């Protein structure tokens, strides 16, 4: 089962830097990313999405429905109907909206396999705020302490 980790950052390019670090770990076979999306918001409020996923796997899986529904609800719909069907509650959407002010970024990651200590060590160099995770309480605590 994949673990979801969503982290917001105060700087516009910080989520991109995190993604680069995670891609390097994946290249070294130290982490198995199912997919990820970086969201940035510029000073004018324009939102840019940068998806990172296996296109063939995403066509059939939860992740394409998850990203599609989440992005649609955040950017276009506003009423967030239908979120519960894919496991997204209103509180999660509100956290994202509240943390996406101008010149900020966020990263949403589905991880199939990773050493939690390695992920914490990698993310420790970046300061962010955990918006949502399915990690255990212990792993979440370690991650929060590292990036706070």
Structure overview:
The chain is of the alpha+beta class and 148 residues long. The protein has one domain (3-147). It contains six helices and five strands. Strand 2 (31-41) and strand 3 form a beta hairpin. The longest helix has 16 residues, at 62-77. It has a five-stranded antiparallel β-sheet, with helices on both faces. It is globular, with a radius of gyration of 15 Å.
Query: Portion of residues in helices?
Result: 40-55%
* Main beta-sheet annotation: 5 strands, antiparallel
| Strand and helix order | EHEEHHHEHEH
Terminus-to-terminus distance: 27 Å
Average per-residue pLDDT, rounded, comes to 77
Strand line-up across the major sheet: 3-2-4-1-5
Task: Give the overall silhouette.
Answer: globular
Q: How many structural domains?
A: 1
The tally of strands reads 5
Q: How large is the radius of gyration?
A: 15 Å
Number of discrete helical segments: 6
- Unreliable stretches (pLDDT < 50, length at least 5) are none
| Relative strand content | 25-35%
The structure class reads alpha+beta
Provide key terms for this protein.
single chain, 148 residues, alpha+beta, 28% strand, globular
């Amino acid at each position: 089962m994949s673990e979801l980790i969503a982290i917001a950052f105060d700087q516009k390019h910080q989520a991109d830097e995190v993604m680069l670090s995670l891609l390097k770990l994946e290249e070294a076979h130290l982490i198995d990313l199912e997919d990820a999306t970086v969201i940035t918001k510029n000073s004018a409020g324009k939102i840019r999405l940068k998806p990172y996923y296996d296109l063939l796997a995403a066509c059939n899986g939860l992740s394409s429905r998850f990203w599609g529904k989440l992005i649609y609800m955040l950017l276009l719909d506003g009423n967030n109907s239908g979120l519960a069907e894919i496991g997204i509650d209103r509180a999660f959407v509100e956290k994202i909206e509240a943390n996406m002010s101008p010149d900020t970024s966020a990263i949403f990651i589905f991880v199939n396999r990773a050493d939690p200590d390695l992920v914490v060590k990698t993310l420790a160099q970046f300061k962010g705020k955990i918006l949502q995770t399915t990690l255990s309480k212990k792993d979440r605590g370690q991650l929060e302490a590292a990036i706070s």
